[in-house]
Amino acid sequence: MSVTTEPIIAAPRTGRIDPKYLRSKGSSGSFEMLTWLFMRLSGVLLVVLIFVHLFSNLMVGDGINGIDFGFVAGKWADPFWQFWDLALLWLAMLHGTNGVRTIINDYAERDGVRFWLKMILYVATVVIIVLGTLVIFTFEPCLVDGAGNLLEASPAFCETR
Q1: In 10-44, which positions are buried (b, 16+ CB within 10 angstroms) versus exposed (e)?
Q2: Which has the higher per-residue pLDDT, 52 or 15?
Q3: What pLDDT, on the 0 to 100 scale, is given for residue 150?
Q4: pLDDT higher than threshold 60 for residue 89
Q5: Torsion-angle region of 29 (φ positive above 0: left; ψ -120 to 50: alpha; else: beta)
Q6: What CDD domains does the database record attribute to this sequence (predicted)?
């Protein structure tokens, strides 16, 4: 019986790199570098946006018991909060989409599967961003009937309009 002194597992970085992992000569990797940078910057900004959102909704006023249609209507009557929530929506969706895109690139082995998963992801992202933006900017809190009379379910501030 002979004993070999050769290691069973090769030491890291000693073997040849698989050609599919090598960058082509024309590729500078700038897109991936920009998405990496976007993830870091948007992550920091999202932390600020989320904590201010949570503080203004849960700590100010009646807390969670005060959140209802009238609360959202009153908040979105101010353009500042409309743009705040819009920035939160857009950054969260783009940040999440980029993260899922990276996961798809890492784990989907076949090109066709990778392509269709990313297409579904992009379509879903566009639909959610468009619908969310429309909701924020077309939201009408003052409910009226066919004759133009204010409904009872409308928030109190609608009577002063």
Answers
A1: eeeeeeeeeeeeeeeeeeeeeeeeeeeeeeeebee
A2: 52
A3: 73
A4: yes
A5: left
A6: SQR_TypeA_SdhD_like (cd03500)
